[in-house]
UniProtKB/TrEMBL annotation, chain A:
UniProt feature, compositional bias: Basic and acidic residues: 13-30
GO CC field: nuclear origin of replication recognition complex
GO terms classed as biological process: DNA replication
Name of this chain's protein: Origin recognition complex subunit 2
Automatic annotation (TrEMBL), chain B:
Record keywords, A-Z: DNA replication, DNA-binding, Nucleus
Entry's Gene Ontology cellular component terms: DNA replication preinitiation complex; nuclear origin of replication recognition complex; nuclear pre-replicative complex
One GO process term, biological-process aspect: DNA replication initiation
Leader sequence segment: none
Subcellular location(s) per record: Nucleus
Domain Origin recognition complex subunit 3 winged helix C-terminal, residue spans: 568-667
The organism of origin for this protein: Gracilariopsis chorda
Protein name listed in UniProt: Origin recognition complex subunit 3
GO molecular function per UniProt: DNA replication origin binding
Primary residence: nucleus
Region (Disordered): 461-489
PANTHER family xref list: ORIGIN RECOGNITION COMPLEX SUBUNIT 3 (PTHR12748)
Domain Origin recognition complex subunit 3 N-terminal: residue ranges: 135-274
Length: 418, 668
């Protein structure tokens, strides 16, 4: 076995001494660790900066230029270093989960979220006011045939909404919330064609047909499309971006959009870029993404693993009696063998298919392997079971849940059906 | 209660997919207003297209010859179009479109375009080939033959060979019309295409190669159009454009995008630039709207000037103040425009003169080592180099052409009669071509002096005038017999030739000096731009604004950089944030970036909580530092919000690889 693979295999079995759960870490130590890592780039930068900007009197201009080039090269090489550092070797993280935290009940969390203060509110308002003062210029750029792309950290929803209001003086304006996963571009185009331009119904046409129809039907009218998060999931496909860029290239259609995703510019190739004719506007508002993150997952708000337990119990209740009992057998075996406290870490806690079949046959749960396989497939479909080939090629089965979660589920099922 | 809170929050925050703000704006029925920047850009773009068309004419006419060629042996004429360096990048689609349009326009043929992105499988190619109507000649134009699988190209040639044996194709062949022609676009070299073909396929085609213009050729044409436009770029702005051109695979489309933005931003800052460009380019009368803009702008400008002059205790506009101010503004504006136009045309005249002289006398431009140019490969091009040399310096607002003029003066100082004559001819021709010649008195005077000098150079001078007469040498018959006399005669002839050359050269000295003076007079006509009023109208030098609106030129890395700055040094972007304080999301990011590719939510939260608690220190009345306890629910809510925001920004995602873990997606 190659050395790297062996280390990896061992790493799965042995108890990880360096994991943060086992390591005694005081509060100060943690703080220091964070602050030290945060200061590292600054130190590096200072070092680079010294070589770049403060040549000694003895060094010639040529040496300074060479020094600059070397510093630039180093900077370029160092730019992606963290990727290789992160992907080097095995991942060592603690096995503790959110279930081990004393997470506040969901109601309290909701209330706390609502009552969170925004310490930068005044500054954010000032920043927004600065940007609002430039609306005249932005409108001019739009009328010159460019599209506007607002980027930078912080929610730009308020800013774009205000700009949409500003545009209503001369444009018919539609605001598109592309962070909403239920959005469909077809409905947006249909709304523009039908409501704004009074064109015929194009329900059975392609997206590009809509664009053609809008191009023909717009005449002297002006339509402004303000898109919150043009990089949002519903608009990320190539087809949608192609359609939007073609729409932006129509004289009379003006697009003002915002992006937030770190890799958003990769959405566009050269031809799309040319059609959009972006004018980039830096808008670091630092405003919280409240409306935009409604659809993102919030692990703590779900009370750690609580939601997972609820979901598993609901599913098991809807399954057949035999499937429930097979799950129970698996769970009991897993709990009985699970001495380490981390179910996934211990290979011993896994049951092979043959072992399970023997038990199931004894308890009259399955008469032949095929019927057991049907039950297991059902559990697998609902993410209540995982399987893997072991070193002896035998299929190993386990439930991807933590010990307390399993106990909670078993007690729930027992109380419901016994 | 909890349910109620949940419902309220949901209804507050969940947004509808779309909102129609205004279906009928107030000025909906009004005619769409024209944007001067857009108009100026369209004019410039059409001039660039004209330049590019003239560049593409030669290879396209060559292509037309091959298409009309009929092979008696029945081979398929296959034209490999080397798209050049430009086509390897973002301009390929545009170049191919140009070819397809040309083919469609040039003859009554059916053009079937194929692209690797759409027709990379042989079934799709066959489907396209089946749609060909062979009642008229067909051309299969493949955009990117080098991106097709080799087998598909081979099969396509094989099928084409079989298809042309059909009845309709044979009928065309009988009339000596080629029924089918292949036009294959390849990147830089056709070697891959040749190596892909088997013996059977190579035997049925008659290959030919055409080279499309390179990216530098196209860029030179853009520069040419730029020199004729109304605006005057500063040197730094031009260097920025060159840098972008080089860093984006020499894509002309990218340069054009930046130029368009540059036009828009400049016309917004300087509305009078639109009027100037229109006057310069179209030579139209001023519209009423232009006059209105002029009045408004001149009002401001005049007021500013007057204030400045009052400070100097010298008021030159006293006479102008008597007449109505609008009229004065208009008059002054036209006068200023005239000066600007004169300056610009003189500059371009001198630039053309230098360029033509460099070409005629085969001079290579000298590098300015002090500038440390980054784009040597572009600057190797003579025309672009000279164009750059004639741009306005950002600091001094002056055009320093000494470096470019020095070689010409050197040539003049050593020039013989023919070279002088050639130099004078070049100068005369360039001045005659210049539109300014008719009304610029200084240039007219120079033109007149050149004519006189031309006559002087052409005047036949007696080379022996003033030479001492040497007595003829005695010839010795015996020496002649030995050949010594012939040698002496040759030597005498040589000496007399040298003498005549020296005398002739002496007679050229005043002509050389005169020509040198004329050239220096032309150079001196180019005064620093800052000395001309309202030079801001035509000068584009705001490099920061251009960089800002183009997303750091190119744009692709800017959001990423911006995000990292916001996370690492938020005080740089928002001054109100203290240097050592960070918003929650920045704190969460910094902890995340400290870890590997997988991060435990448990650890992440614990780290976050400890930092957030430590940051909540407050000084009491006595000045003692106290840690204000933060409720766990608040900490958890803050952490959850930070997590959601980081997920939304694409920095991390939840993973099923390990329970309650997130995968880091961004590595600085």
């Amino acid at each position: 076995m190659p050395r790297g693979k062996r280390r990896h295999a061992i790493g799965n079995r042995v108890e990880r001494k360096t994991s943060s759960a086992k390591r005694p870490r005081t509060e100060e130590a943690r703080t220091f660790s964070t602050s030290r890592s945060a200061s590292t780039p600054t130190v590096k930068k200072q070092r680079r900066g010294r070589s770049k900007h403060e040549p000694t009197a003895a060094t010639s201009d040529e040496e300074t230029v060479r020094g600059n080039e070397t510093a630039k090269d180093e900077e370029e090489i160092g730019a992606g270093r963290s990727y290789f550092e992160a992907h080097k070797g095995i991942v060592r993280t603690s096995n503790l989960t959110l279930a081990s935290l004393s997470i506040a009940p969901q109601d309290q969390l909701e209330v706390a979220t609502r009552n969170l203060k925004n310490p930068l509110q005044r500054e954010q308002e000032a920043k927004l006011d600065d940007l609002r003062r430039c609306f005249h210029q932005y409108a001019y750029i739009l009328s010159a045939g460019h599209s506007l792309l607002f980027y930078g950290f912080g929610s730009k929803k308020q800013l774009l909404d205000d700009f949409a209001q500003y545009l209503t003086k001369s444009h018919a304006v539609i605001v598109v919330n592309a962070f909403n996963p239920t959005l469909s571009l077809r409905s947006v185009l249909a709304q523009i064609a039908k409501d704004f331009l009074n064109l015929d119904d194009f329900s059975k046409r392609t997206l590009l047909d809509y664009v053609e129809a809008i191009r023909d039907g717009i005449k002297d009218r002006l339509v402004g499309i303000v898109i919150h998060n043009i990089d949002g999931p519903p608009l990320r496909s190539v087809e949608n971006q192609n359609t939007l860029s073609s729409l932006g290239a129509i004289s009379g259609v003006s697009i003002a959009a915002s992006i937030d995703h770190v890799n958003a510019p990769l959405l566009w190739d050269g031809s799309m870029y040319s059609r959009y004719e972006w004018a980039w506007i830096k808008a670091d508002t630092f405003a919280p993404y409240q409306a935009e993150t409604v659809y993102c997952s919030k692990p703590l708000l779900h009370g750690g693993g609580e939601r997972r337990v609820e979901g598993a119990v609901a599913l098991l209740k809807s399954l057949s009696e035999r499937a429930r009992r097979v799950f129970e057998v698996l769970a009991q075996r897993q709990l009985g063998n699970d001495d380490t406290g981390a179910s996934k870490d211990a290979v011993l806690s896994r049951t092979t298919f043959n072992q399970l079949f023997e038990i199931a046959k004894e308890k009259f749960l399955a008469s032949d392997p095929a019927s057991l396989r049907i039950i297991l497939t059902e559990l697998h479909t609902h993410d209540l079971l995982q399987s893997k080939r072991g070193v002896d090629a035998a299929e190993q089965l386990w439930i991807p849940l933590q010990k307390p979660q399993l106990e909670a589920i078993i007690s729930d099922i027992c109380s419901a059906f016994k | 209660m909890a349910f109620k809170a949940k419902r309220n929050r949901a209804t507050e925050l969940i947004s509808a997919p779309t909102t129609a703000l205004c279906k009928r704006p107030k000025h909906h029925q009004a005619k769409r207003q024209t944007n001067p920047a857009r108009d100026a850009w369209l004019r410039f773009e059409s001039s660039v297209q004209d330049e590019l068309n003239s560049l593409y004419n030669s290879p396209l006419s060559e292509l037309a010859k091959y298409i009309d060629y009929f092979s008696e042996d029945g081979e398929i004429v296959t034209v490999c179009v080397l798209m050049g360096a430009a086509a390897a990048a973002g301009d390929r689609e545009q170049t191919f479109q140009r070819i397809v349009h040309f083919l469609k326009r040039s003859a009554d043929v059916e053009v079937v375009p194929l692209k690797a992105a759409d027709h990379a499988q042989i079934d799709l190619v066959i489907h396209q080939l089946e749609s060909i109507d062979f009642s008229r000649p067909a051309i299969i134009a493949v955009d990117d033959a080098d991106r097709f699988p080799e087998s598909v190209i081979r099969d396509m040639i094989y099928i084409c060979d079989k298809v042309k044996t059909c009845e309709e194709a044979r009928a065309l062949a009988e009339k000596s019309i080629p029924p089918l022609t292949l036009v294959l676009g390849v990147g830089i070299s056709d070697s891959r295409f040749h190596s892909a073909l088997g013996i059977g396929e190579a035997a049925v085609i008659l290959p030919a190669i055409i080279r499309m213009p390179t990216a530098i050729d196209c860029f030179r044409r853009v520069v040419n159009a730029l020199s004729q436009s109304g605006l005057e770029l500063s040197r730094n702005v031009f260097d920025l454009l060159c840098g972008e051109f080089i860093h984006h695979d020499r894509t002309i489309a990218m340069v054009m995008r930046s130029l368009r933005l540059l036009f828009t931003l400049h016309f917004y800052r300087e509305p009078l630039a639109a009027v100037f460009c229109r006057v310069l380019n179209e030579r139209e009368g001023l519209h009423a709207k232009d006059q209105q803009i002029m009045r408004r702008m001149l009002q401001t400008w005049l007021n500013k000037q007057l204030l400045m002059e009052v400070d100097k205790k010298d008021v030159p506009f006293t006479g102008l103040l008597d007449v109505p101010v609008q009229e004065a503004n208009r008059f002054k504006c036209l006068e200023t425009f005239g000066q600007l136009q004169k300056w610009k045309t003189r500059l371009r005249l001198l630039q053309r003169l230098v360029l033509t002289s460099y070409r005629a006398f085969n001079v290579s431009p000298r590098w300015d080592t002090s500038e440390n140019l980054q784009h040597n490969e572009i600057m190797d091009d003579l025309q672009i180099n000279i164009f750059r040399g004639f741009l306005v310096d950002d600091e001094t607002l002056d055009v320093k052409v000494d470096r470019l003029i020095a070689p010409i003066l050197g040539i003049v100082r050593k020039a013989g009669r023919p070279s002088l004559r050639q130099m004078i001819d070049i100068a005369q021709k360039e001045i005659s071509k210049a539109p300014i010649h008719s009304f610029d008195e200084d240039i007219g005077e120079i033109h007149h002096d050149l004519s006189l000098l031309h006559d002087e150079v052409n005047k036949k001078t007696d080379v022996h005038q003033g030479q001492p007469k040497y007595p003829p040498r005695r010839a010795s018959s015996s020496r002649y017999a030995r050949g010594g006399g012939a040698a002496r005669d040759r030597r005498d002839q040589l000496i007399s030739a040298v003498r005549s050359e020296v005398h002739s050269s002496d007679s050229l000295v005043p002509i050389r000096k005169k020509l040198e003076t004329i050239i220096m007079r032309m150079v001196n006509l180019i005064i620093p731009l800052k000395d001309i009023a309202m030079h801001e109208t035509i000068l584009v030098s705001n490099i920061e604004e251009l960089q800002s609106f183009s997303g750091g030129m190119g744009g692709s890395a800017e959001p990423r950089t911006s995000l990292f700055t916001a996370m690492r040094q938020p005080s740089k972007l928002m001054e109100a944030i203290p240097p050592h304080a960070h918003p929650d999301v920045a704190t969460a990011y910094r902890i995340l970036a400290e870890g590997g590719r997988l991060v435990s939510l448990y650890d992440w939260y614990n780290n976050f909580a400890s930092i957030a608690t430590a940051a909540s220190r407050r000084k009491d009345e006595e000045g003692n530092v106290q840690i204000v306890p933060v409720p766990p629910a608040e900490l958890q809510a803050r952490f959850a919000r930070a997590c959601s925001e980081l997920e939304f920004l694409g920095v991390m995602k939840y993973t099923n690889r390990k329970s309650d873990h997130v995968a880091r997606l961004v590595f600085e």
